[in-house]
Automatic annotation (TrEMBL):
Its EC number is 4.2.2.n1. It catalyses: Exolytic cleavage of the (1->4)-beta-glycosidic linkage between N-acetylmuramic acid (MurNAc) and N-acetylglucosamine (GlcNAc) residues in peptidoglycan, from either the reducing or the non-reducing ends of the peptidoglycan chains, with concomitant formation of a 1,6-anhydrobond in the MurNAc residue. It comes from the Bacteria. SUPFAM superfamilies: Barwin-like endoglucanases. This is peptidoglycan lytic exotransglycosylase. Residues 1-26 form the signal peptide. The lineage of its organism: Bacteria, Pseudomonadati, Pseudomonadota, Alphaproteobacteria, Sphingomonadales. It is an enzyme of class 4 (lyase). Keywords: Cell wall biogenesis/degradation, Lyase, Signal. Residues 167-322 form the Lytic transglycosylase MltA domain. The keyword Kinase does not apply. Residues 44-65 have a biased composition (Pro residues).
Amino acid sequence: MPASVQSRPARPGRWLALLAACLALAACGRMIPPGTPGATPEPGVRPQPAQPRPTLPPAPTPLPTPGETAIGPAVAAGMTLAPDIETLLPPDTERLRLAFRAFRISCPSLTRRRDQSGLTSASDWQQACAAVASFSEANAREFFRRYFEAVQIGDGKAFATGYYEPEITGCRQRMAGCDTPLYRRPQDLIDVDLGLFSDTLKGRRIRGKVDGTNFVPYDDRAAITGGALAGRGLEIAYANDPIELFFLEIQGSGRLRLPDGGVMRVGYDGQNGRDYTGIGKLMKDRGLIQAGSMQDIMAWLRANPVEGRAIMNENKSYIFFRELTGPGPLGALGLPVTPGASVAADPTFVPLGAPVLLSLDRAEASGLWIAQDTGGAIKGANRFDTFWGAGERARAVAGGMSARGSALLLLPVGTYQRLRSRQDVTPPPIP
């Protein structure tokens, strides 16, 4: 996903001022994490719901919520070891095979990167990742049964939405009727890890820019669409329809159909650090639309262009893009995401690359998924955004996905007991 921002050295005085500004801005809350594929998609056409599936049974042996010495938010939320994974894994299905394939893709990252959730270390994944090459997709269920255990985070109550890879009409060079720019990430957009300045701010990040000796919020959507970045050579392409581009931003990646019949694929290249606002809920609350489908929203925006532009600008978040020339779209791990197998999750609760077992009231979304992505509105222990690929079916399923049920996180065998044995987690005596 986003590459590290290269910034010019600053004078010591400037960085003292920057630090003071960062600490002041910390109260604004956590910024949208990098690698966002887009925040929660606006609802679209909802397919007829499948028959509900029962949620997973409550599990015994809860890990108590630790106090101030908690090793991370996942443990602080409370962890429960689920029953034998053999009884929980679904039978061999296409989704299970796709999840196996996606997990194998994630392994190089799992064995190298730091787990933000604090649940695992890179070494915890070594055994499973070393073994995955010796299993075939036909034996996917046996692989997950042998190398993983299931844990419930918090109450395990899951909520899942969907996202997809939209395709819109566009062009590489500005022309009449194709003049809404897609911008690459500006060099003056700076990420700040507040944890570098204070232990009390660990895990909190902000984005902004330097203005003289001050660190200030970056331009919001209204400023950027109004031309704040024009003339800086940041345009990578143009879209025919600003409303379609708005929804492509929400998804975080997509395809542009070019005048010559070709396709240009674009992916996430950063976000301006401003909070995301879902305009669908905003419009329903104001009585502007009833159902809240993506089609309803688009129709109203087109019928009311001036008011519609103002409403879109109430979502101050703005996404920057880069052209994708290899496999994609890419998730937060910088790896291709798999339709029907990849899911966006909150990395402070779910290790990126870990399997997640969902049992939901929408059968098409139930089963094993791999957490390979993040999203600005995907926050919390059991909040997920399922990826469905490209095309009209993907658009319909993702746009209408709103599923509830339960979730289990699959971790390498022995992880739960290791977390229990940590000195900063004191479980009650085992009866």
